[in-house]
Structure formats: C-alpha cells, structure tokens
Design a protein that fits this description.
This protein is of the alpha+beta class. The protein is 32% helix and 34% strand. The chain contains 9 helices and 15 strands. The chain has a 15-stranded mixed sheet that branches. Helix 2 crosses helix 3. It is elongated, with a radius of gyration of 19 Å.
Length: 306
C-alpha cells in the first residue's frame, strides 16, 4: 500500500450518486490518491473500517457523521497500539449530526476547504471517553466515544427519532415529531451517580458525559484535556424544559438553573432505573446494573485544520 494513498469510507446520505461524484471530483482536482469503499448500512461501517486497516492504509477518511466516526474509533481501539499509532483518522462531515467535525471547524458545505486541510496532514492526538457496561446477556462491554454519552431524556429522544424515522422516512420531520412526543414521555429518572467526591442520589432528567462538545450539553469540553465534562439536569417544569432547549440551541446551556456541571476523569452510575443510554448519537439501550465512564487521553491520531 502506498503510504500517501487515502482509504475513504463513504457513508451515503440523500442522493448518494450525485454526492459521491461531487466529492470524488474535488479529490481528483486536488490530486489526492485514494481508494473508495461505501457502506451499505450502519453495520457495514465496522467491517469496512477493519478491511481498510488490515490493508495497510495510513490515512483513513470517514465521509459521515458522529455515529460513523464512533464506529471507526472503536475499530481502531481494537488494534495494537503500534498499528493504531500509525494511522491518522480524518472526517468529511456528512451525517445527521456532525458535532465533532464542527468542533474543529469542518463544515459540511465547505468540501474544498475540508479536503485542503486534510491534505496538509496536521495530526492531533485526541482523547476518547469509554463507557464500561454489562449487556442483557451478561457480557462486559466497552464502547468508546469522541463526543458524548447521553443518559435519560436525550437518549429517549434519540430512540423516538429512530422509531419515527422508520415510519416517516424524513430525518427532519422525525426529529420534530420526537420533540413533540417527548412531552408525553417520562421526564425524570431515579439515579445514583458518583462524580469526584460528590454522590448524587435523586431524580435526574438527563445526563451528558462529554469528551467533546456533547451536542451543546458540554460546550466547554476539550477533546485533548484528559478530562470529562459532565452536565446533570435535574427535574424541571415543562416551560423550563423549553427554555433549556432554547439555551441549548443558542450555546448557553450551562446558564440554565437546572444544569449542574462537573469536570472529572471518571463517573460511576450506580443506579439509573429505566434510563436509556446513547453513545455519540447511537442508542445502546439500558445497561444491566451499574456502569461507569472513563477517559483515555490522547489515543487517536486525528487530522485537524491549520
């Protein structure tokens, strides 16, 4: 394998053929040597990522969103440290959620700029958070994340969005319907959480643990600080929920009076009855028993802008 050749993992969205042609045209104009593979489903991303790694590509660029990046880093973390350290991961944002890409100022509508930045191969080692949990079959699992883990209401909205999308077919419409249906869903969860020297034992609406920006819920998180940011949202009235959504959309989420922020290296969730868990926008369900979240400092080579 030529050391400068990129392996590109394309996760299609919308008009895949037209979009693919546009991306390939820019790559060709910029003189990038690459091989192209396309995922057929979310399950195929991991298989294709493993294929690119085993075939010796040193630059792997994911054309996709946060969930596709999540699959990619989890594949990388299955490799020996020597193999992982030899690979640089890049992203061309192309998903429903591109939060981690936006943190670095990669924008979906600025394809030429993104590829120019990737060509410069400026590498930054970034942190990964890790969720340690037990699944329903009793197996101990680990799931790494670049962005965040959501526990409670936001994970519930993710689940509603997935269910309504299968019925409605539209990403935007399913999100709007999910927010509306949220009104009729459970709004708080009995939790027992240990963060630093504090123990929180009460009803919690939602909890976000972020190595990255956390879809606005951990806006001060830095993905190379070696620390996790945590935002706990206690139960609040419905009007305050909508006020919180407005602050979230305007980048002032931590100003809400029901939001309680922490910074730590480890979080223990001893109890979270009935609360769903999502990792980087993808639902993993309800872990069995207690679980915890840690940080792995600077373990992935990520291509960043100038």
């Amino acid at each position: 394998m030529e050391q400068n050749k990129w392996g590109i993992l394309y996760c299609p969205k919308g008009n895949a053929s037209k979009q693919r042609q546009k991306i390939q045209a820019v790559l060709d104009q910029r003189g990038v040597e690459y091989d192209w593979v396309q995922s057929e489903s979310t399950d195929s991303v991991e298989r294709l990522m493993k294929m690119l790694i085993s075939n010796g590509y040193k630059t792997i660029v994911v054309v996709g969103g946060d969930s596709a990046l999540n699959d990619a880093v989890n594949c990388l973390m299955q490799q020996d440290g020597e193999v992982r350290d030899s690979i640089a991961l890049g992203v061309i944002p192309n998903g429903l959620m591109n939060d981690f890409a936006r943190y670095w100022d990669f924008k979906e509508g600025n394809l030429e700029q993104t590829i120019d930045w990737l060509k410069k191969r400026r590498v930054r080692k970034v942190d990964l958070g890790c969720l340690h949990y037990q699944d329903k079959e009793g197996q101990q699992r680990q799931r790494y994340f670049l962005n965040c883990v959501n526990i409670g209401l936001i994970a519930d909205v993710m689940n509603l969005r997935r269910q309504t999308r299968s019925l409605l077919g539209s990403h935007t419409l399913s999100f709007i319907v999910s927010i509306f249906l949220m009104i009729f869903h459970r709004m708080d969860y009995k939790m027992r959480i240990r963060i630093n020297t504090d123990t929180v034992d009460r009803k919690v609406m939602t909890m976000c643990v972020g190595s990255g920006p956390g879809y606005g819920q951990t806006p001060n998180a830095v993905p190379y600080s070696g620390l996790l940011d945590v935002s706990l949202v206690y139960h609040t009235e419905m009007l305050q929920v909508f006020a919180g959504v407005w602050l979230l959309l305007t980048g002032r989420f931590l100003n809400h009076r029901s939001v309680h922020p922490y910074r730590t290296r480890e979080v223990w969730i001893d109890e979270a009855k009935h609360a769903l868990v999502g990792v980087d926008g993808r639902l993993i369900g309800r872990p069995e028993g207690s679980y915890h979240i840690t940080i792995e400092p600077e373990v992935i080579n990520f291509l960043i802008p100038e």
